Amino acid sequence: MTKQAPTCPLCGTERIWKDGLRQSRHGDIQRYICRECGYRFSETSWNGSDDPEHVQRVHREPLNTHSNLLSNRQICVTQPTGAKNLAKVETRPEKWAAGATKLDSAAVKGKIVEFTWNLKREGYSKSTIFNFGYLLRNLVKKGANLANPENVKDVIACQENWSLNTKRLMVAAYNCFAKMNGITWNPPRYKPTGKLPFIPLESEIDALIASTGRKMGCLLQLLKETGMRIGEVLALKWTDVDLERRVILVNNPEKGGNPRALKASGKLVAMINRLPKTNDKLFGKMIPKTAGSSLIRLRKRVSMKLQNPRIRRIHFHTLRHWRATMEYHKTKDILHVMKMLGHRNIQTTLLYTQLVSFEGDEFHSAVAETVEEAQKLVETGFEYVCTHNDTMLFRKRK
Description:
Helix content: 40-55%
CATH architecture of the largest domain: Orthogonal Bundle
Number of helices: 14
């Protein structure tokens, strides 16, 4: 006979989570927790009966008198909810209504998990779902009461170490959470002042790449040459890379961007060929979070070794800014840069392309007497300047 799925004895819903096992003289008892009201209960069979009986396992607490204790500390859910040793369990729904503030609270965890699942159902991107969930958990750690919007405002306002942009993102995450949970509030307005992006020198980027391993080095070189987002790079499959024609297809653009085909250099193709082909993706099961943690440790080590604190400011999106700026400086064609970045709105591209004045910068120079030599120089980033006495002159910014 098929065992019937348990339902919450308090509210009757079937939205139940397993909550571990508890050992007893009758064997292991499966514990459950209700996702709707936070009620915790156990399901077991007694006296050899095939019919499941919901039995509430409660916390044992010292009471004022021994006579107040029931002889059997297993309270059936049919017993009145006023039973004294059920008091702690009964307060779980009340904790969420009053605003549980501990991250390990099952009610808060359940609400955040349900919120992220709803974001996925609504078609939000993976990065947005991850970031919004992270921001809400961070709010709870700071003592925010997610059921009380005024308390959320106070907690955000008291964080002096947060930038205006961080507070704006917190408000956006909670605003989405409030809409999905029917919470009415007037979100505060945080308008961060615009800042120019950090544009590192190419020598600093190359020094960082040269200090990495095979996989991370290829990842950074790919970001440097193409200006792709980290999520787009980690979503690349081997079928998206044409090594013979040196073309990389971005078939999974983020942020509602356009798919595009990007050219790869011979150096990048050689680095891709050295990657292990153990997965259908170029970088296997690597995710942005683990890649970002590896980059933080790497740039710290390189920065200390070279005594260059600027290297610590390089992150994955910095390479996108760098590529867009360099491409715009070279071509002065904003539409070309817009197509390369996959933007749908040219106003977005303008935020990435800062016309940097490179006057006075130093250059590496090189000469080529044959077409093959000139081709190798172009592939390594040198720009053609002129031809003198049948010799081609090239230069590359240091």
